[in-house]
Write a structure and sequence with these properties.
Structural class: alpha+beta
Helix content: 10-25%
Largest sheet: 6 strands, antiparallel
Strand content: 25-35%
Strand order of the largest sheet: 4-5-11-12-3-6
Number of strands: 12
Mean pLDDT: 78
Order of helices and strands: EEHHHEHEEHEEEEHEEHHE
Distance between the termini: 124 Å
Length: 325
């Protein structure tokens, strides 16, 4: 009986091996084994299965130990707040959060816009004390600038205000109970450059025209706290105002620089202020007509009130309001 080799096609009598290529014909034509049998017999499959089992066992051990640790920590810290929001006052009972959602708290009001940058402001100790200075608890000296109608100020100043200083530059008044004075001043036009000074012994607040200001127009205002305790503060102030002689109509028309004399005036004083006291410093110079280019060279500051038509006409007053806050 003849057969044909399934690989090379050589014809020969039936035999297990091909006489031409040596093929094991019976094994070659045998039906292939099922896939699962081949996988079971594959050593690579055995190795992969072992690795998977190891990963599963290690993961289970890690997860079981983690849950055990969390239960122990929870039992140890039971009833203790984990954040400052959950903490109550000392000795109070910790109350669990309710499932009822409370109404959200309203957003805080927006802070007022910051005032324009001052050209120079220093708040620093000026004198060395034998011991560390003690600040008045929760208090500062707040200094703001206002343009107030002269008509509104006259009845206020005639109502028993204490005059503490006077010069050719202006006057200063102290109100022991300053609620009424505060109301009248704040009804006027607020100018920029409000400042605060911490009430430490020797602390100083400074406001000056820019270094580029002409010698013919300058302004400086300085506050200093001489004493600090829990009841009152001793405030000293010193101010200087340099003004040019007004131009004549001919000089204004010529628009040519002219060397002219200047007028210098100072206003200074010292008061003891309680928590309800108000200090008003009123600048009422005899010269109120200042060239705009002089004001511009002085930089931004409350001295720009010299550009106000009411101030030039003498119907308004430059008021510095100082109060403890």
């Amino acid at each position: 009986m003849m057969m044909e080799c399934p690989r090379c096609g050589f014809t020969q009598p039936k035999d297990r091996y091909c006489a031409s290529c040596g093929l094991d014909v019976d094994h070659y034509v045998e039906k292939p084994k099922p896939l699962w049998i081949r996988l079971v017999q594959n050593p690579d499959f055995h190795l992969s299965l072992l690795v998977i089992m190891i990963v599963i066992v290690v993961g289970y051990i890690f997860y079981a130990q983690r849950e055990k640790l969390e239960r122990q920590v929870g039992a140890l810290l039971a009833g203790s707040p984990l954040s400052s929001r959950d903490a109550g006052t000392p000795g109070s009972t910790v109350v669990k959060k309710s499932n009822v959602t409370s109404a959200p708290a309203p957003p805080p009001p927006l802070p007022p816009p910051p005032p324009a940058e001052a050209k120079k402001e220093d708040v620093k100790p000026l004198v060395a004390a034998e011991s560390e200075p003690i600040a008045v608890a929760g208090e500062k000296l707040d200094v703001s600038h206002w343009e107030v109608s002269r008509e509104a100020l006259i009845p206020l100043l005639n109502s028993g205000a204490e005059k503490v200083s006077e010069s050719t530059a202006g006057r200063a008044f102290l109100f022991a109970q300053g609620a009424k004075a505060l109301e009248i001043v704040q009804a006027g036009r607020r100018m920029a450059f409000a400042r605060t000074m911490t009430l430490q012994a020797g602390a100083q607040l400074t406001l000056e025209t820019a270094p580029s200001a002409l010698e013919a127009f300058q302004f400086g205002l300085y506050f200093q706290n001489l004493k600090s305790d829990t009841k009152e503060a001793s405030i000293k102030w010193d101010s200087t105002l340099v003004l040019p002689t007004p131009d004549t109509p001919a000089e204004t028309a010529a628009q040519a620089p002219v060397v002219k004399p200047v007028h210098e005036a100072s206003l200074r004083g010292q008061v003891k202020m309680g928590s309800q006291a108000i200090l008003l410093i009123l600048y009422e110079p005899g010269i109120r007509s200042v060239r705009e280019d002089f004001i511009n060279k002085a930089g931004d500051g409350p001295w720009r009130i010299f550009s106000s038509e009411e101030f030039r006409a003498g119907t308004s007053v430059w008021v510095v309001l100082a109060q403890l806050k």
